[in-house]
Write a structure and sequence with these properties.
Shape: globular
Largest sheet: 12 strands, mixed
Structural class: alpha/beta
Distance between the termini: 28 Å
Order of helices and strands: EHEHEHEHEHEHEHEEHEEEHH
Strand content: 25-35%
Helix content: 25-40%
Number of helices: 10
Amino acid sequence: MPVKVPRGLPSAAALASENIFIMDSDRAEFQEIRPLKIAVLNLMPNKIDTETQLLRLLSNNPLQVELTLLKTASYSSKNTAREHLEAFYRTFDEVVREGMKFDGLIVTGAPVEKLRYEDVTYWDELKRIMDWAEHNVYSSMYICWAAQAAIYYLYGINKHVVSKKIFGIFRARVLDKLNPLVRGFDDAFDAPHSRHSQIAACDLHACPDIDVLAESDEAGVYLAADKSLRKVFVFGHGEYDADTLHNEFVRDSAGGRIDTDLPRHYYKNGELGNLPDMTWRAHESLLIGNWLNYCVYQATPFDLESIK
């Protein structure tokens, strides 16, 4: 089944060209199905790329998903046209005023890992969103920096900035094969990582409220969740395209950053620009499908007003 998106969303045309089923809001009105209401708080600089990546994954499941794109009001993106944001995004305050509730929430990463959380422009707003999600969203998925931020705010476990960016494609192994989030996973799988900070694996393993589900010897924890599966933490970027790490390396190099080497285990033959085969999309698609099915669809109340 498709993702229901606003008419005219640029990502929809890109995905349609890949033979991915996208349904606009007009057609969706004729289906007598209650779609899963999923909100995406998009903190990434290039929002259209991230929309496309997440929509591609959300579309590959048998459930109808109604998408709401959210932006922060306390920070205005400099890399996405204001017209796009005004046409397709809503602010958290608008959602609260309208009393909206959601089956699921995805909060993306953001390139602010080196900053103290309290120094991030939208930190207070993000804390309000996490508090609100406790009683207005059934299950939330936090990605990369957002996962670190949620772990810090909800459990008091802080990150540490690393001397060299954790950057490349890293092999992770599944630690708990009985958890629904990794149902169908191979014993080991590849995943992209791109971050300047890390939460120590030992700190996550020591937290009694968190289950560590997949971990990389080189890149640390990839996937964790709370016991109820209402909070899911993904510390990498399985949604990335084949060229995303390359584009980030070119950006970082142009910016004169000296703490970023070539992405590891990425370029074919180690040659700059020789892009890799995709070796992670199937598992990330399975992860998103498992989250939608087992953490959201199978558990969320039919009447969203009864979420507590």
